[in-house]
Amino acid sequence: MSIPPxxxxxxxxACLGNAALIVLDASWYLPDAGRDARAEFLxxxxxxxxxxxxxxxxxxxxxxxxxLPTAAEFESxxxxxxxxxxxxxxxxxxxxxxxxxxxxxxxxxxxxHDRVSVLDGGLGAWRVEQRPLDxxxxxxxxxxxxxxxxxxxxxxxxxxxxAIVAEGSVQVIDARPAGRFRGIDAEPRPGLxxxxxxxxxxxxxxxxxDATGRLLGAEPLRERLLAAGVDLTSPVVATCGSGTSxxxxxxxxxxxxxxxxxxYDGSWTEWGGRDDLPVEPG
Length: 282
Prior knowledge:
alpha/beta, Oxidized Rhodanese, domain 1, 5-stranded parallel sheet
């Protein structure tokens, strides 16, 4: 049985100490952000939380960032964090905009574990409400028995994206900031072209949360997606810079009970890094 995609701060605090609960701090930042996610975790985290290293949990045998690891690799990492088949996982980050927490939420679902939620508002809301924090290294959990099996419907490859773009068969939503989508602002990773995939819709991931970092309410969220031209009854593929922030789109679709979306894992780092694929500005 799956649990809701979002959990509030009060609800999470009430569950702390539950043996089935696994809390993961999945904070990650772009290199130019000047933030050290690991150091911030040691400075203060939700009691009992384990640090989920997104870079370590990505496929290592590729030059593309944050590609899905193999099922065996993800299974091993998850077990080491204490994840079992019956675990109820809560993921958060410190970005205030669900920059990376939604990615880890999606990864667990992609590998067959539906009992996972994102902490609404993340660590920022937790701190503002002066809820308890631990510092330093957490106690290592007993290894779990989680078994990972990739659900292929959750992810799209480059070949599949070429066909989707050529045929216009599936809605493509780009979660990068608007300036990068329009080709006005440079990409943070060198060597990438500016612009977006032909036919893609722009919904910057930061626009899906309110001033407190919480996901917009159902109706404002629905209105934001509709205003961007999204048909909430049709399939969606989400994309961004490296397949991380795009998962906030997939989280929003789940909250709205819309058809489950898929992720283009290579995202703009793959598409914009090639000169043989179509790119549109503006």
